[in-house]
Structure formats: C-alpha cells, structure tokens
C-alpha cells in the first residue's frame, strides 16, 4: 500500500479557505469567530452496514460528508470544517480517487475546509468529524419544544426509502420520479441554508436520519411532549407519483431514513416567518402536526378522523426491517 | 446488539466540565476562549493493525486517547475536548466496559471532556478526534526549525519498542525495568504540560509516534534543514538497564515509535528556559544534536567521531520491521 502520507497528499490535500493551518502538522488550527460557539458532530460509516462493497464511491464520498453537514444544520449552525479518517483494505486507487472526488464535490458545494485526516489499512470505514459555528446561545436543540408548537418537516422525506426498497426489494418506481428518489438516497441535500434560517423561529429541531417518527421520538423525549401527526398533511404527493401506492408512500415518509430533512417545532406565531425562511432558503416546508402534552403520547390522525396511538415501541412497526 | 443509544448512555455518558452542550443532540457545543485558536487532530485505530484482538481493552482505551492528546501537546496546545467513534463486532459488554473505563481514566487524568460519539456494528475500529486550544499565533509547528537550533527529546524514547520486541520477539528485559517498558507501550504519558510550556522557546516540534529518526525527517523536510544527532548524547541509559544491550537500546531509541515523546528544536539561547520548563513540567529533556544546513543531510555522529550519513530512505534501515 502506498504510504499514508502519499495517500493524503494525492487525494485529500485541497486548499483551505477559512482555516489558519490545514493538514500536514500534528494538528490543524482554526479560529472560531468571536461571539460564536463551535458545533461538533462525528459519524462513522462501515462497509457492509452503512454502505455496500459495490456502492458508487463518488456518491459515497458525497454522502459521507453530506450526512454530517446535516447534523450541523439541524443545530441551526453553519458547517465550516471537517476531518476525515479512512480505513481501506488495499491500495485501490480508482475507488479512492472517485471517493475523494465525490467528497470534494460536496465540500466545494458547501464551502467546507477539510482540515486533517488519517488514512490506514483496515476494513473499509469512513469517519468524518464536522465543525460548524453558531452565534452563542442561538443553537436549536432537540429539547426546546412545548405543547402547542406546530410540527414542520422540510422537503419530501421518504424518497430515499423508496429508492432503497426499489434497489433492494424490487418495488417499481415510475421513471420520471425514480431518478429523484435515487438522487435523494445517494446524494442527499443537507439543509444548510434552512437550518440557520430557523434560528429564533424553531423551538426544537433535528435531522431525520432514522425515520420521521423515530426521530420525532427524540424531540418528544427531550422536550417532554407528545405529538399529533395529521396523516393527510404529510407531503407524500411526489412519493405517490413515484410508487403509485399511497400506503407505501406514507410508510416511506413516516419510517424511511436517509433523506436528511429537518424536522422542527415552532410556535404558531412563527408561521409567516418560517415560510419566509423556507422561501429564502429555497426549501419547501410542510406543517404536519402539533406537539401536545406528554400524556397524550404520539397519535397519528387519519383522513377519516381515526386516531392511531403509537407507543415508543410502536415506532418500530414503521421501522425499515432491512 | 444493544442499540446505539443504550451503548452510548451506558458507557460514555460522562459529565462534561468545560463544554456548553455535551452529547445527545445533533451536535455538541463548545466555546473557544477569546484570543485562542482551536487545534484539531484525528486518529483511527484498527484491530489487527494498531492493536490486537487480545489487547487489554482498558489499556487500549487509555492509549487511544493518550496518543491524541500527544498530537495536541506537540503543537504547544492544551487538549480539552474529544469525540469518539467506535465500531464493534458484537455486544461484548465486558470489553466495552473495560475500554470505556480506560478511556475515562485518561480523560479524567487530563481534564478532557468527551463531547460526542458514534457507535456502530463493524470490525473493531476506534476513531478519536481531539480538540485543544492555544493562544492565537503561538502554536509550535514542525516547520520553524533553523540551522543552528539545538535538537531536544523528552523522556526516554525506545521503552515502548523494547516492550513490543519483548512481547512479540521474546527479547529479554530485566525485571525492574520491564514494567516501565510495558507501561510506556500500553499506557503512554502524553506530554501535555511540557508541550505548552515550550511555546516561545521551541522553534519546531512534533511527537514521536513512528520513531525518532523518521519523525525528525518531518521537521527537516518542512523546516528545510539537515541535522546532526550525537549518538553518545541519546538518553539510552534506562534502555540499556532494561535490555542489557547498548546497540539494541540505541536502535529502540532512534527507531522505536509509540512512546509519544516530544522532539523539538530551539535556539541555543533558550537552553536555560527549556530546562526550567522541563523542571516545571516534571519531564526530563535531553539535547541530542543540532539542526544544520539542508545540504548536510542527516548525520549520526558516533562516540569515536565516526559520521554515519543517513538519507531519507536510510531512516528505513532503523525502521521496526514488524
């Protein structure tokens, strides 16, 4: 295998734009602007579990960074720097070149400086740590939701799940929308504009990586609330176009992970400002329900008014059993 | 396997002391003090390459963090925060408990806040990203050495190599010193006091992870210098005590990695201040040579005055061929 230094130099030595000292020393150096906090998150992806040996490496490079950007956006912070640690089974230059290309494409699209890395031989594993900045005290946590706050979701979650089920289980997707779904799965779009635009508006926020209902559970648990989801309000129209099956579309929307849309709560009075933020960020948002008292639990209200109670364990019944 | 959330809660949910928001949200939040830069480094350890399946997990927990602290100290920065990403093949609670215990012992010893993590199933892999702070503009880089600067090393590098050769190749170590060597290998002591104490004194610094000569090469390359190493000045006395073989001791000192001692250059005028810093930090330092003009290359001067020229490739001849 080429030495670690050669690998890093060849594939990951990009210019930095807002970093005091990039890779190549014992540590990188950066300055957090005065009055801002640093937001930090880390995410490990393992071959065979988070991606497959035949996953397109360029898409994987994009997605590895994109899912981390999403975590920072979900705090209302702006992602700015990342480190990459990479274990590789062998010196597969074409794979590595494509992976680095996809990663750089995402880094360039979102103005992220790659400030350091580690490369080693081992089972293919990708670990990115991401850093963003947010004005002090203005991050949007999961725990700030209050009963009465309205629940919102960005975009059209479920497209990634439909793509996964298409690839894995052979469910049919209609051609004009199939590519949208595949794009959502392979090259997710982190909501890095919308997240910061919701500071001061959203009371609680996270990004949906494991499924809308499951991740909503984290808001409910930390905010001490219940919630009502209005099934007819779910933004499933494009999903129904894609798969032609309203029940499947709703299942994808409620349980599918991997779209990295933002799920957030906000007082009703913020509705106009939220729609303004959505327009400014170029990302649609949809009101899908409301936070309630904790005792009310999590309830899905169907079009006919039927109320389906979901317990925490009940989320599982929507879980992707892949 | 227990869920990711359970694992993190059970083993890694420690109180934080100088962090605005610890784990459990999309990102952690921290404040870098005004007038300071953030120093960032990342390091991936893979089972079978960096450690073995039968490595004591408590020692591994300690060492995983300690080697990262060393990178920050080598910048003259003070380590303060860390993230941990962990892939585990199965739900091996005893292993994980011991690993977490060793990691926490090191974190507590050096006042490190663990601010986030990710746990997943996969081949056992440990990735720590470490964060330190340093007054702006005062970090000690590898590239600041100048011809005439004296070369210094902290501690007694080579003990970890002797321990490795003892365990792997069966070389004999004398009992009273064997434990010191094994401790150096399994529970290295990052020089977190000495590193920051050398700000304004050392012109170039790094920590020795791959071997004194090999790592010196990084200073020479980035500083544009050559170097003379005085073989009789090498701090090998405790190594000779341990292995009873002067040649083996010198080889361990020059080529052995894994001790995480600090190798630094400084103008001769700083000698008294360096000795003061050494005393204040409680870490011995030894002058082992001098930086020279680049054209002079790297020369090892033996006790009889014989000069052994080493090329960059020549470092390899000291490399541990494990």
Automatic annotation (TrEMBL), chains A, B:
Residues binding Mg(2+) 4: 26, 41, 71
One GO term (biological process): thiamine diphosphate biosynthetic process
Entry's EC annotation: 2.7.4.16
Pathway(s) where this gene product acts: Cofactor biosynthesis; thiamine diphosphate biosynthesis; thiamine diphosphate from thiamine phosphate: step 1/1
UniProt keyword Magnesium present: yes
Single Gene Ontology MF annotation: magnesium ion binding
Protein's UniProt keywords contain Electron transport: no
Keyword field: ATP-binding, Kinase, Magnesium, Metal-binding, Nucleotide-binding, Thiamine biosynthesis, Transferase
Binding positions for substrate per the UniProt entry: 50, 258, 315
Residue sites binding Mg(2+) 5 per the record: 210
SUPFAM superfamilies per the UniProt record, alphabetical: PurM C-terminal domain-like (SSF56042), PurM N-terminal domain-like (SSF55326)
Residues covered by the PurM-like N-terminal domain: 24-134
Binding site for ATP: 117-118, 142, 209
Domain PurM-like C-terminal: 146-296
InterPro entries documented for this protein: PurM-like_C_dom, PurM-like_C_sf, PurM-like_N, PurM-like_N_sf, ThiL-like
Catalysed conversion reaction: thiamine phosphate + ATP = thiamine diphosphate + ADP
Binding-site positions, Mg(2+) 1: 42-43, 118
PANTHER family found in the cross-reference section: THIAMINE-MONOPHOSPHATE KINASE (PTHR30270:SF0)
Listed HAMAP family: TMP_kinase (MF_02128)
Family in the record: Belongs to the thiamine-monophosphate kinase family.
Protein role: Catalyzes the ATP-dependent phosphorylation of thiamine-monophosphate (TMP) to form thiamine-pyrophosphate (TPP), the active form of vitamin B1.
Protein name, per record: Thiamine-monophosphate kinase
Provenance organism: Nitrogeniibacter mangrovi
């Amino acid at each position: 295998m080429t030495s670690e230094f050669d690998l890093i130099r060849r594939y990951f030595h990009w210019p930095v734009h807002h970093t005091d000292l990039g890779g190549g020393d014992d540590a990188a150096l950066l300055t957090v602007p005065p009055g801002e906090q640093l937001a930090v998150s880390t995410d490990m992806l393992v071959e065979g579990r988070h991606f497959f040996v035949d996953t397109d490496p360029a898409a994987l490079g994009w997605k590895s960074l994109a899912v981390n950007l999403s975590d920072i956006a979900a705090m209302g912070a702006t992602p700015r720097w990342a480190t990459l640690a990479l274990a590789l089974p062998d010196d597969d230059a074409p794979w590595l070149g494509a992976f680095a290309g996809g990663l750089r494409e995402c880094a360039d699209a979102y103005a992220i400086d790659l400030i350091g890395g580690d490369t080693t031989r081992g089972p293919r594993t990708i670990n990115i740590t991401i850093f963003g900045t947010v004005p002090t005290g203005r991050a949007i946590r999961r725990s700030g939701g209050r009963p009465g706050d309205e629940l919102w979701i960005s975009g059209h979650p479920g497209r990634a799940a439909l793509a996964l089920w298409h690839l894995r289980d052979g469910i049919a997707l209609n051609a004009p929308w199939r590519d949208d779904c595949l794009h959502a799965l392979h090259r997710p779009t982190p909501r890095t504009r919308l997240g910061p635009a919701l500071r001061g508006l959203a009371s609680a926020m996270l990004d949906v990586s494991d499924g809308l209902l499951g991740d909503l559970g984290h808001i409910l648990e930390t905010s001490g609330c219940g919630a009502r989801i209005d099934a007819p309000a779910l933004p499933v129209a494009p999903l129904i176009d894609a798969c032609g099956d309203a029940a499947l579309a709703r299942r994808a929307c409620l349980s599918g992970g991997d779209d990295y849309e933002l799920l957030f709560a906000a007082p009703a009075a913020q509705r106009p400002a939220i729609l303004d933020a959505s327009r400014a960020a170029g990302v649609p948002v949809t009101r899908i329900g409301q936070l309630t008292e904790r005792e009310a639990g999590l309830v899905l209200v169907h079009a006919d008014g039927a109320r389906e109670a979901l317990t925490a364990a009940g989320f599982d019944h929507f879980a992707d059993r892949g």
